[in-house]
Each structure stands twice: as C-alpha cells, then as structure tokens.
Design a protein that fits this description.
single chain; about 350 residues; alpha+beta; Uridine Diphospho-n-acetylenolpyruvylglucosamine Reductase, domain 2; Uridine Diphospho-n-acetylenolpyruvylglucosamine Reductase, domain 3; four-stranded antiparallel sheet; 14 helices; 12 strands; about 20% strand
Length: about 350
C-alpha cells in the first residue's frame, strides 16, 4: 500500500476564507477539490503539501448562471457538467470533452477547475517514488535531467486536460481570486508551455469560475484520441468551434489542440484558413494540414509519437465534418468507443 504523506487539513466555507488561508499558509499549502489528480500524486510524492485546503464545502463554486453567456462554477463536478442541459445544447464541445474524461466514478469526484489545472504528465514522472529514485529523478521533480529530451533545459511533460482545449476553442475566460483581489484572464492565457511551471495562476489564487461567451450562431465539437475507450488520458485532443452563416460560410473559427505540448493551445492560422469559406473537403484538408504542422508530440505518453502527429489532420477533419452536419456517429463510436 502506498501511503499519503502527513499533512494539515482545512475546510473553509467560502472563497474569501479559502483565499485567506492560502495567503497565511504560503506556498506549502495546496487546494484540493475532487482530489482525483492530487491524491495519487501525493502518494507518489510528486506533491507533498504541508496543508490541504479543501473546496468541497464552498457553495459559491457550484453555481451555473445564465446571462450574456454561461458561467460555470469551478467546483462543479464533471458529471454535473455532463448533466447540464445548457452545456449540452449550446456548448457541445465542452459537453463531449467532459463526458470523455476517465470513468463515471472519477467524473463524480473530479471538478471542472481541477481538470483545467491538471498536472502535466510524463512516462518518467508518473511513477512511484521508488521507481523514480532507482533511475534517478527527472527534471520535473527532484532531478536535473529531462529523460525524454536529455539536452532540454525545459521540462516537456504534456498537458492532458480534456476540458481546456474545448473551452479555449469556445473563447472562455476564467476568474482567479486571492486575498489581494481578483482578475479575469482568457483561458488560453492561463497556460504556459513548460511542463513544470505550466500555469499562470499564482499559488495564492483560486480558480473560481469559467465564463463562456454567447453561443448564438456557434457550433462546437471535441475529439479525443486514447488507447482505451475509458479511463485513459488523451494523447491527442482536437476542439473546434465555428460560427456559420445561414449559407454555410464560415464567419469565425477557432481550433485548439491538447495533449501535444505542455499546454493546450489555439491554432489561430488553422481557424483563419477557414474564414470566408464553406466547409468543403478542400478547405477542411487545408485547415487540417495547418493545425497538424503545429502539433509537437513527444515520446513521453502512450502510442507512437510520429503516428500521433500524422493523425492530427484526420481528427481535425472529423471535427470539422461533424460541425458541418455530417453524421459522424459511426466514426466517433469506433474512435471514442462512446456514442456521444
């Protein structure tokens, strides 16, 4: 049995109280919501916080509010996201992403905020403490060498969040709150391309809510590549959101990638290539090639990295054809093993 390290535990009842605790405890404190990522990491000694600050009792983080768009509390579980009718009807890309995270048991515990702040992953990092000690620690934790790219000065552990690419394509913003105040940032700006320092969120800040713009005229989708049909992290995520004119002309487009770098990111040139055009096979192929050129998968997750890069254009094609209105159910069932 792998045991947890010793830690203190605080359970505030409000965001303000949680922010005060974080400010007082300093960098040795960490937030915990569902714990589906942090608890296994603590058992493997990836993180050993002196104090855990639980957000489970904070009702402010569980809200769903309609307005100019849709506001989702970061404490909503992924199951609650999947069961939300406004999400399913208007922001289908997010709904599909949340529905493909792990298993029902983990979706019942894992939260939207937790999935957005998911730790980066790597074959050499996500092992037991004894395994990592035996081969010598890696650059991400306690070592001086990246065993994936030994000449690299930067950790190349990969981002494996499903919800982030979908939300980036939808143009989402997030609210970050601390005892010193609060700020809003575009979700795309929350991430940095560094496997260690991968979030622009400060240690004392709490991600409290996700704000989605109006969905009128927009259609979105999310496609995920993984070895198994459940309980697997993505080795490729493609999210697309398009605004279509009545005649099918693309007025605006955003395509985002996940699991091919240390951050999820928007491929702006891929979306720009579609603007003013209809979703013909030629336009889809052109956008797919542009997006694929930006994918830089590393040999630190499942499946062959060259094949993973090659299939990016195919997955972009699947996403765009689904937005176009093609019946992609059979293809999705074969790839995702889920009837979404």
């Amino acid at each position: 049995m792998i045991r947890m390290p010793w830690f203190g535990f605080r359970s505030p009842a409000s965001v303000a109280e949680a922010a005060q605790i974080l400010a007082a405890e300093g960098p040795q404190a960490m937030l915990i919501a569902g714990g589906t990522d942090l608890v296994p990491n603590m058992k493997r000694r990836h993180q050993t916080p002196a104090t855990l600050v639980s957000l489970r009792r904070v009702p402010e983080l569980k809200k769903i509010a309609n307005g100019a768009g849709l506001t989702l509390g970061a404490g909503l579980t992924l199951t609650e996201i999947v069961e939300s009718e406004p999400v399913r009807e208007k922001y289908r890309g997010l709904w599909q992403a949340a529905a493909q995270v792990a298993t029902p048991h983990l979706r019942n515990m894992g939260t939207l905020g937790g999935n957005l702040c998911l730790d980066t992953r790597c074959t050499y990092y996500n092992q037991s403490h004894e395994w990592r000690k035996a081969i010598d620690y890696c650059l991400k934790k306690d070592g001086e060498t990246c065993w994936v790219a030994t000449a690299s000065k930067r950790c190349v552990a990969v981002s494996s969040t499903d919800s982030a690419p979908a939300l980036i394509a939808l143009g989402a913003k997030v609210r970050l709150v601390s005892s010193a105040g609060e700020r809003e940032v575009a979700l795309a700006d929350l991430y940095k391309n560094d496997g260690i320092d991968y979030l622009a969120r400060k240690p004392e800040e709490i991600l409290t809510e996700v704000m989605l713009p109006q969905a009128q005229g927009w259609k979105s989708t999310y496609w995920k590549l993984r070895r198994r049909g459940s309980f697997d992290f993505p080795v490729l995520g493609v999210a697309a959101a398009l605004k279509l004119a009545p005649d099918g002309t693309v007025e605006d487009a955003r395509i985002a990638l996940g699991a091919v770098a240390s951050r999820p990111f928007l491929v702006e040139k891929g979306g720009d290539a579609l603007k003013g055009k209809k979703l013909t096979e030629e336009a889809i192929a052109e956008a797919g090639a542009i997006v694929a050129s930006r994918a830089k998968p590393m040999d630190n997750t499942d499946l062959d990295l060259y094949w993973r890069k090659d299939v990016v254009s195919s997955f972009v094609g699947h996403a765009l054809r689904e937005v176009r209105g093609d019946d992609m159910r059979a293809v999705r069932l074969r790839i995702a093993r889920q009837a979404l």
